[in-house]
Fold these 2 entries.
Entry 1:
Amino acid sequence: MRENTLELFINGNPQRPIYYTVKKIINAGYTGRNQEEVMKHIEELKEVGVPAPDKIPTYFPKAAALLTTDNYCEVIDKDSTGEAEYVLLVADNEIYVAVGSDHTDRKLEVGNIPKAKQMCPNFISRGVWKFDDIKENWDDLKMRSWIGKDRAKIYQDTTLDAFMRPEELLKRVKALLGGKLEEGTVIFSGTVGALIEGMPFSNTFDVELKDEKRNETLSCCYQIKIIDWIKE
């Protein structure tokens, strides 16, 4: 099996590359500290037919090959959308932080969430931060997403105090994995509700994580292209 190894840059600096081999992906969901925000996201998913979970948080596995830093994906129709998430990458004696999107087919999610998670890639930024460098001001980090060309419409706007802390998320995932959190494990945090109703399709999804204290930003932007070249 071919390994999925990504070239990432510490603090976004091409002079500080790391080569990260993905072994496991876990997509967490409904991890908010603010239960009102959690319910908002549950309700917006219910509006497009996705059933409410039996318990929260939720955790779904994803194939290791489906993590990418590419800037586009191909889909069969307009049923998929992105969502802003912080991302934890477990390395040898280090935890790296990226920003990304768990791009999901919403129609398939109605019937089978784990299978729906395998239909589109998870996207992450090329730039990463060391968690130890930002953990003191973690709650103040700002995460936003946009849809449309040139960030036409803001889609999500939050700070990381809305989410479960990384320490707690890592602890819970470790327990799910039999008490061992190995290098190559990638954890997506879950997301917050959107500012736009209906979870509309967009040809562009753009997300950033901003540390105003250090004046640094991680960003991830990709195009969604519909496969429409067979004419019947």
Entry 2:
Amino acid sequence: MKKPKIYDNYPLWIVILANILMLAVYVAGAYIMFALSIITGFLYVAYLVILELYFLKEGCIHCCYFGKLCAFGKGAVAAMFFKEGDPEKFCERELGFKDFIPQVLVVLIPLIVGTAILISRGFNLLILIAMIYPVFSWFAVNPFLYGKLACLHCKQGSICCPALKFFIKEKGGNKEE
């Protein structure tokens, strides 16, 4: 089998596509939360901003893509806000299920709120679609995005990646052997 190309900088089309797909999940959640109230909408958006800043500060500054385009462009964004970190710290991190809870809440909270809205206010097609897309994304979009476009070509994954270690239970990263 042919080895996948490892990118020093991801092609812009991958970065754009990855962000559109990720932002669609955020927009769907925000739509549901704003449907509940303007306060819950703003709290949800604030949560998303804090979560993204946390990822940039705790992960991206230590990644080999710092200052470059990873699949999501976050290495370049991190360089705009933070100083470069220590690449060894990226490799030292151990991830467990609890580390993914904040990202799961991005989908789970709007799903619960959307269900409550549909029950209490009656059927609303846009709310239903906003509930379905993030779940669809988890099971259909993310495996394609991460499996075919992002992780497969990731330089950091071939060095060490805590997420890959968690998900594939294998030291190192990309399965290149």
